[in-house]
Design brief:
This protein is of the alpha+beta class. The chain has five helices and 22 strands. It holds the Pfam family Trypsin.
Length: 469
């Protein structure tokens, strides 16, 4: 892989055995490596026949069967749904967060099942900020009806609190595909609100059919992000109180993917058959959702941009991990400048180990790059390309990582683990396992190994400094 070297303390292979997956990326919690869209508790056996034989109007779900479903609460009262897409981010409808003063009393509860009781699995966090789509207009609230909520903190992921997957950029679910929406909305039009989470399965409609039906309404609806789902004769639908919640589709033998955000509908579960022959107040519409495929770049840009400043760029603890961007399926955005720093106790050194690396390649890494700096901003190395750097051991208690991207090509970013080590725990036979990028560094490296085995590591720093002069 291309490497632009500055003051290279040393790069080596096989210093410490890292077991794949044993470290915790920043985007996940410690413990089990929970994956998006993977249910621990299924509602029932999933097959095409069962999806078509659900109770008309939907049914109550088992606890944990929709672990990405969250409840938006205003002063502890549910008013909209949302979907967890990471431990820190929720997607909801923009019309749910129109109130300018909402942030002061808005909370999000994950792991909720029965709104009438406080359950052991529940977790509630305040919202740090929210971002409505810039094309959303309250005067035409059906179009671009989507918002991102950044939590003030992070949810602890587990069996009843898991994110749904975002769709891949080219992923499509064809018309007729049966998907699921859920929420605590009304059970019938103008009916009662349930305490327990409900779900209903709906087929995706052809875009042309969706547009045709929406033009039969008294105020014809047009938009760039509209997606319809439902049955022409009605009977099954989302309803008031479900706004902002998920429309998720399951990949065959795969994960549950968020494809739509519950937006609106004319009435609830009304038929739209023969709409033109009905009075306006009797006409119906399918359920209308915001199509995530139409706003996916905006979602990724905002989530990834905000991830540059996670915890003010400070990596926590003496051992952990960093994944950038947060989701391995997302590409980093153009024109980014992201900086992370790690400070460990005085006298310790820092080992960096990369398991994944995909940054725009260039001989001198002049376009997109990840630079590693040690104490006093000494450049250890500048990296780009598709091959992970070999493990990097920095002989100081401070490391700074700087990622930059230009306005052209991008990549999938990188994943790495970091670990603080004392000089006494460093291996003594490292000289036999070195891999260096430039031949003239070999003498420096061998000299370092001798110093290391003699327990005089600090002399290495002095030796390097004298060579710089």
């Amino acid at each position: 892989m291309p490497v632009a070297s500055g003051e290279l303390l040393f790069l080596m292979v096989g210093i410490v055995c890292f077991r794949e997956g044993c470290s915790t990326p920043m985007s996940l919690q410690s413990g089990r490596n929970w994956k998006c869209g993977k249910k621990v508790y299924e509602s029932e056996s999933w097959n095409d026949l069962s999806l078509l034989t659900r109770i008309v109007g939907g049914n109550q779900v088992k606890q944990g069967s929709h672990p990405w479903q969250v409840s938006l609460k205003r002063r502890q009262w549910h008013f909209c749904g949302g979907t967890l897409v990471s431990d820190k981010w929720v997607i909801t409808a923009a019309h749910c967060v129109l109130d300018r003063n909402l942030l002061g009393y808005l909370t999000v509860t994950a792991g909720d099942h029965d709104l009438s009781v406080t359950e052991e699995e529940e977790q509630t966090l305040p919202v740090k900020f929210f971002i409505k789509h810039p094309n959303f207009n309250p005067k035409t609230p059906m179009n671009y009806d989507i918002a991102l909520l950044k939590m003030d903190g992070a949810f602890k992921l587990g069996p009843t609190v898991l994110p749904a997957c975002l769709p891949d950029p080219d992923e499509k679910f064809d018309p007729g595909f049966i998907c699921t929406t859920c929420g605590w909305g009304r059970l019938t039009e103008n009916g009662i609100l349930p305490h327990v989470l409900q779900e209903v399965d709906l087929p995706i409609l052809e875009h042309s059919e969706c547009s045709r039906v929406l033009l039969t309404l008294k105020k014809p609806i047009r938009g760039d992000t509209l997606m319809c789902a439902g049955f022409p004769d009605g009977g099954r639908d989302a309803c008031q109180g479900d706004s902002g919640g998920p429309l998720v589709c399951r990949r065959r033998h795969g994960a549950w993917t968020l494809v739509g955000v519950t937006s609106w509908g004319l009435g609830c579960a009304r038929s739209w058959l023969n709409n033109l022959s009905k009075k306006y107040n009797q006409r119906g519409s399918p359920g209308v959702f915001t199509d995530l495929s139409k706003v996916l770049p905006w979602i990724q840009e905002n989530i990834n941009a905000a991830s540059c400043s996670i915890q003010d760029g400070k990596l926590p603890d003496n051992e952990g991990g960093l994944r950038f961007p947060e989701s391995p399926k997302h590409f980093y955005q153009n024109n980014q400048l992201c900086v992370w720093t790690l400070l460990v106790p005085e006298g310790m050194h820092i080992l960096l180990n990369f398991s994944h690396f995909d940054v725009e390649p260039d001989t001198f890494c002049d376009y997109d790059s990840l630079s590693v700096y040690s104490k006093d901003d000494r450049l250890v190395g500048k990296f780009c390309g598709a091959d992970p750097p070999v493990p990097i051991l920095v002989g100081s208690n401070t490391v700074r990582l700087k990622f930059v991207s230009d306005n052209k090509k991008s990549g999938a970013g990188f994943s790495m683990t970091y670990r603080a080590l004392t000089p006494a725990t460093l291996p003594g036979k490292c000289c036999l396992r070195a891999v260096l990028y430039k031949t003239y560094l070999k003498s420096l490296y061998l000299y370092y190994c001798k110093l290391l085995e003699a327990g005089t590591f600090q002399l290495w720093e002095n030796f390097i400094s004298s060579k710089r002069r």
